[in-house]
Specification:
Layout (H helix, E strand, L loop, with lengths): L3 E6 L3 H12 L3 E7 L3 H11 L3 E3 L2 H5 L6 E4 L6 H10 L3 E5 L6 H13 L4 E4 L6 H11 L6 E11 L3 H10 L5 H17 L3 E9 L14 E8 L4 E10 L4 E8 L3 E4 L10 E3 L2 E3 L6 H4 L1 H17 L7 H20 L3 E2 L3
Parallel strand pairs: 1-2, 1-4, 2-3, 4-5, 5-6, 7-10
Antiparallel strand pairs: 7-11, 8-9, 8-15, 9-10, 11-12, 13-14
């Protein structure tokens, strides 16, 4: 079996996770990385024995040994980096969101569809065992027809100051595009339906300085879907107990809750604070296996020449809905989405 040679573009926190997971996959080699920070590049080169290290993405793509690239660069560069990789005939794994501008994404999808390369998008919750278990129950009719979905994504409050400092230097794309695309994708995936109307609200009570930066620390969205399901979405940066991702699905015959308590493991701690269940503290911990599973699926798709279930169109829909949420918040109005 031919060793697949993959390059990673971008070595931020998530890029480092993908680099390590690629390094540990069987039949795969972490052949190259590109990243602006030379010190980080040096550390990664030494830790994973990476033969080729670059500070420029396009230079990395000139590496003729590459079979595929994993794009974990800032969101605003994703579409450009996808198109450049396609020109080099590379398979592509791209982190969410696929892009920030609808027309730019559509043009990029046209290029993806003209190619015979595998394109995989990083919606890792689709590869989490808990979400897959819930999906199986829903698809087999065990909870009847879905009536309502409630989905939360709330980062630890310990990271709020860091985010404020980041937002002062460069825009994140906004809370809905930066964080809620995962919930939007989960809602579409579980219901097999499109989101047609959104109404968004938000607040900056914990970080008022974000008002001047056009950012939010807590946002909510009420959604109507084409199949008359109602969805409630919450995104925030102020969970005092850790990293809180929770999804509830209410059906006509039953109800599911995924991670109602964001428990770190099955251990209960009994001490002077009482009986305590430790919580997951960050996304790499909560979704560690999902990040591995999605890359395994990417490799499988390449070897079997099969396009993955998650598509570039899913990325487009996530961005379209997230932008509609931002429009709703900015204008304090209901927004109908026309695809």
């Amino acid at each position: 079996m031919k060793t697949l040679k993959i390059g990673v573009a971008g070595l931020g926190r998530l890029g480092l996770i993908h680099a390590e997971n690629i390094y540990n996959l069987k039949g795969v080699e972490l052949t190259a990385v590109s990243n602006l920070d030379e010190e980080v590049n040096k550390q990664v080169k030494e830790k994973y024995k990476v033969p080729n290290v670059y500070t420029n993405y396009e230079e990395m793509l000139e590496q003729t040994e590459l079979d595929a690239v994993c794009i974990v660069t800032p969101s605003g560069f994703h579409t450009e980096h996808i198109r450049l990789a396609l020109k080099k005939n590379l398979h592509i794994f791209c982190e969410k969101p696929i892009g920030l501008e609808v027309e730019d994404i559509k043009q990029t999808i046209d290029e993806i569809e003209k190619s015979d390369r595998i394109f995989h998008l990083g919606f890792m919750r689709r590869f989490d065992e808990d979400y897959l278990y819930a999906k199986e129950m829903i698809d087999s009719g065990q909870i009847g027809d879905i009536s309502l979905i409630r989905s939360y994504s709330i980062d630890p409050i310990q990271g709020l100051d860091s985010f404020v400092n980041f937002a002062k230097k460069s825009p994140s794309g906004g809370l809905f595009l930066d964080m809620s695309v995962h919930d939007i994708d989960v809602i579409r995936w579980l219901t097999k339906s499109e989101i047609s109307t959104v109404w968004a609200t938000g607040t900056n009570k914990a970080a008022p300085e974000l008002n001047e930066l056009n950012e939010l620390e807590l946002g909510t969205v009420t959604m109507k879907l084409d199949n008359d399901v109602t969805a409630l979405l919450v995104a925030g940066r102020t969970a005092s107990h850790g990293y809180h991702v929770e999804t509830e699905i209410i059906g006509t015959k039953g109800m599911l809750r995924i991670a109602a308590s964001p428990e770190k493991n099955k251990v209960a701690v009994f001490n002077e604070h009482g009986a305590i269940r430790p919580s997951s503290q960050h996304f790499p911990e909560r979704f560690a296996e999902a990040y591995v599973n999605e890359l395994k699926d990417f490799v499988r798709c390449i070897r079997e020449n099969q396009q993955p279930e998650v598509t570039a169109l899913d990325g487009l829909r996530g961005t379209e809905v997230a932008l509609a949420c931002q429009e709703s918040f900015d204008g304090n109005k209901l927004v109908d989405i026309h695809y």
